[in-house]
């Protein structure tokens, strides 16, 4: 293999990977010096001249002329008789520069050199990709579905970079086909060996924030700030917004006329229901807004003694009986999101429970706990609150069977008759 053939093959690789000329020269010299060191024991006395644009490569070995029989290091010294074969007028003590052809390294060494060079260029490329995407962590990114696995979707971007969208980072209703364009945020980027692993997410709160920035100009421009996000991906989200400009209604600007602005975001998230509320530093008001659409009668905040635990504290929220189910939400979703958004553990209390009323938990020995939990999910946590509901309504709002509901009401009714 001639020098020019080897360089030509490297130039093709350079074009594919878009490696700049200076970097390629540096990598080439590093690899060739390693090969020379393996062959001759040292590369200190070699000059490597590379012009990758033309495919030129020259390697020169520099040695000092010594008297015949006096050479102690064949790599750095050359005997007079050998030197005069190169130039007949060489004298002892002079420097001799002799070109080394790649073919002199041996075919096996050349193949190893080529493999080493390709490995170095791939490593350089992987490092660049890692740095590029590390800077994009938390940013919105689009790529095309390339391959679908049972536990992840593999995507390729316009540059041919591979990205992974794990099943755990997909919205429950997500359904992709090969060739689909997918938007997500770059969640994490890490090197696994020499290859960068780029993980995307559509379930993180950051994805919702970035969609707001993309779809709502005032958020993108910084006129409206997003102060908090809580999500149950694909189901419901709460977003707290604020504006430093009193002339701007942040909620109205985000939602748009008849929901026109937020509609695209909702569609992207698989019809995820999004509540947008006004942020405030008044914690009582903030908690009340977070629990909307329920209307709060009063509340008592118990600050945490150790904020490091992750919660600011606990709050007892008092509501009228008919508002309890709204505060809790279907399956407890509303209260869970309000807790995430505000940082408080929220306990809902019914305002004005009559003295003769009894908490459902008091019937634990007669009614199974899972049945009590099912009723509490829809805000019914006392005996009278269950008795006030029609059987048909309870059938619609819970997963209980009619026979179970009738038996529960019978037990509760007997309590008051006694």
Automatic annotation (TrEMBL):
- One GO molecular-function entry: DNA-binding transcription factor activity
**One Pfam family linked to the record:** KH_NusA_2nd
Organism equals Polaribacter pacificus
Q: Which keywords appear in this protein's UniProt record, sorted alphabetically?
A: Cytoplasm, RNA-binding, Transcription, Transcription antitermination, Transcription regulation, Transcription termination
User: What positions does the domain K Homology occupy?
Assistant: 233-306, 311-379
- The UniProt entry lists the main location of this chain as cytoplasm
Q: Name the domain of life.
A: Bacteria
One Gene Ontology term of the biological-process aspect is: DNA-templated transcription termination
The entry's localization annotation reads:
Cytoplasm
Q: What does this protein do?
A: Participates in both transcription termination and antitermination.
GO CC annotation terms, alphabetical: cytosol
| The protein's assembly and partners | Monomer. Binds directly to the core enzyme of the DNA-dependent RNA polymerase and to nascent RNA.
Family affiliation: Belongs to the NusA family.
Name this protein carries in UniProt? Transcription termination/antitermination protein NusA
């Amino acid at each position: 293999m001639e020098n020019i053939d080897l360089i030509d093959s490297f130039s093709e690789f350079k074009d594919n990977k878009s490696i700049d000329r200076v970097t390629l020269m540096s990598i080439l010299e590093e690899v060739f010096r390693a090969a020379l060191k393996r062959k001759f024991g040292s590369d200190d006395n070699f000059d490597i001249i590379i012009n990758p644009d033309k495919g030129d490569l020259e390697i020169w070995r520099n040695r000092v002329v010594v008297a015949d029989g006096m050479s102690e290091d064949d790599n750095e010294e050359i005997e007079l008789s050998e030197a005069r074969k190169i130039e007949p007028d060489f004298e002892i003590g002079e420097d001799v520069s002799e070109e080394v052809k790649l073919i002199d390294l041996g075919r096996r060494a050349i193949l190893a050199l080529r493999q080493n060079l390709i490995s170095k260029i791939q490593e350089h490329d992987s490092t660049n990709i890692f740095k590029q995407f590390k800077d994009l962590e938390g940013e919105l990114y689009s790529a095309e579905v390339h391959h679908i696995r049972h536990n992840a979707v593999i995507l390729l971007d316009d540059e041919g970079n591979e990205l992974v969208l794990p099943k755990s980072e997909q919205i429950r209703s997500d359904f992709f086909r090969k060739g689909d364009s997918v938007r997500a945020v770059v969640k994490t980027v890490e090197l696994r060996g020499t290859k960068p692993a780029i993980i995307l997410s559509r379930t993180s709160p950051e994805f919702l924030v970035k969609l707001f920035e993309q779809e709502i100009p005032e958020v993108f421009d910084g006129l409206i700030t997003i102060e908090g996000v809580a999500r149950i991906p694909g189901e419901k989200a709460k977003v707290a917004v604020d504006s430093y400009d009193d002339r701007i209604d942040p909620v109205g600007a985000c939602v748009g006329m008849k929901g026109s602005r937020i509609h695209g975001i909702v569609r992207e998230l698989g019809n995820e229901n999004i509540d947008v509320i006004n942020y405030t530093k008044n914690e009582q008001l903030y908690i009340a807004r977070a629990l909307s659409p329920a209307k709060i009668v009063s509340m008592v905040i118990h600050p945490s003694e150790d904020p490091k635990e992750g919660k600011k504290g606990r709050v007892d929220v008092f509501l009228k009986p008919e508002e309890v189910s709204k505060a809790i939400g279907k399956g407890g979703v509303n209260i869970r999101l309000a807790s995430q958004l505000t940082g408080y553990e929220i306990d809902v209390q019914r305002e004005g429970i009559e003295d003769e009323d009894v908490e459902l938990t008091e019937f634990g020995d007669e009614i199974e706990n899972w049945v009590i939990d099912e009723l509490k999910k829809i805000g019914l946590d006392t005996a009278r609150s269950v008795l006030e509901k029609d059987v048909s309504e309870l059938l619609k709002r819970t997963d209980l069977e009619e026979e179970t509901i009738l038996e529960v009401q019978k037990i509760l009714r007997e309590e008051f008759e006694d």
